[in-house]
Amino acid sequence: MGRVTLGQERSDLVAVVGLAGRFPGAPDADAFWNLLEAGRDAIGPVPGDRWDPDEVVDPTRTIQSVGGFLDGVGEFDAEFFGISPREAQVMDPQQRLVLEAVWRSLEDAGRPASDLRGSRTGVYVGGLWHDYELLRKDTGSGPTQHSIVGNSLDIVSSRVSYVLGLRGPSLTVESSCSSSLVALHQACQALRAGEIDGALVGGANLMLTPEVTVGLTHFGGLSPTGRCHAFGAGADGFVRGEGVVAVYVKTLERAIRDGDRIRAVIVASAVNNDGGGDSLVTPNPAAQEALLRDVYGPGRVPLDQVAYVEAHGTGTVRGDAAESAALGAVLGAPCPQRTLHIGSVKTNIGHLEPAAGLAGLVKAVLALEHGVVPPSLHADELSPAIDFDGLNLAVARDALPLKPGSHIGVNSFGWGGTNAHVVLAAAPAADAAGPDEAPRQDATDPFLLPLSAHSEA
User: Fold this and answer.
1) Burial degree of 118 (CB within 10 A; 0-12, 13-18, 19+)
2) pTM, 2 dp
3) Number of Cβ atoms within 10 Å of the Cβ of 65
4) What are phi and psi of 44, to 5 degrees?
5) Predicted confidence (pLDDT) per residue in 156-190, tens digit
6) What is the DSSP string of 240-276?
7) Looking at the chain, which terminus has fewer C-beta neighbours within 10 angstroms, N or C?
8) Can you tell me whether residue 121 is helix, strand or coil?
9) Could you give the CA distance from residue 205 to residue 353 in angstroms, rounded to a whole number?
10) E strands, 46-129, where?
């Protein structure tokens, strides 16, 4: 889309300079965009290398037998990262996937990992489950020299810092389904305070055993129909999904100074907690509304520039209604000159739980780059529990073109009440082409394709 000029004097602006990820049905960010643009649903049966749904029997519940799964989660080039095969074998695959995603986010940024060694670069990763540890116990695998460290959530982030030689803070954030967006906010705050020079932010989720799925079925959050109908009349819960996401962020000022390619700009971010409500795990619309008012208060992001919000949108009747009420009260009804569109990537790939917030953020970055928001699925008939007209909201059921200057909000909520919101804008307008700019090449001209490898093999 047409880029916008942002006030570069604002020290709180943060640039996304690299991103990478693996998603259900999409091995990288480009394939992810193709999936979203085509309006595809990547939910499928449980793969044979995970568990047999027919053997997961509960006398009181029908256990969800579908999900958004990744391919090849056991594949890992341990030697590339200086890890012995014996250690790699007992490492939680989430640690391996985050290492790979972080490396690829640096490649996307055009920044050699060696450039960061010894730097004040922070690592902030959202994590939650311990499926690999459960799987090892289920298969009778005993403890080893490396198994405790290899299955600790704090090591998901610390291993990145160790392998890359980074001297900034290294934190694994666990706030349930808002973990990765909370991690991003923590990184942004450290950047704004001048505590770090850059940050690698990630999130990962894998489903290696059925235990969590069984537990969530009893909890009541999973869809018995196996689809996420966010904001739709068929809303009956969410579908679980796997994925890993990493983004490389800096202050906008530093990114411009370093000559980085800027993919999007984080204009604002905030985190709060429900602080009470009907129960520990039910959403609190008042707290969600307070979070949005904190972000979109007077003198901050103009409401008429917010074209779309990538919602938490789990496809539960109560959760969708609460989120819609807050969005409508702050961003919809007060701005009648435009209708606020909402949608959820969970309708395409399922709920990536601790990685869900960053999955939504990557969708938003790609939408800003392409100038269009891809459609949100499974809401052909809208939820009767939501007053869309009164709230001035609409579900982006078709592709939504973005006007220049549009902003996108991203919501992410945890079941313990920790809520996060991030606002994105397109990259700032590039300077006029200088005299030393390389001339455009004809398609028939020879093209240099640089290749690199970690070893001669």
Assistant:
1) exposed
2) 0.94
3) 15
4) -150, 180
5) 999 999 999 999 999 999 999 999 999 999 999 99
6) BB-EEEEEEEEEHHHHHHTTPPP-EEEEEEEEEE--S
7) C
8) strand
9) 7
10) 66-67, 121-126
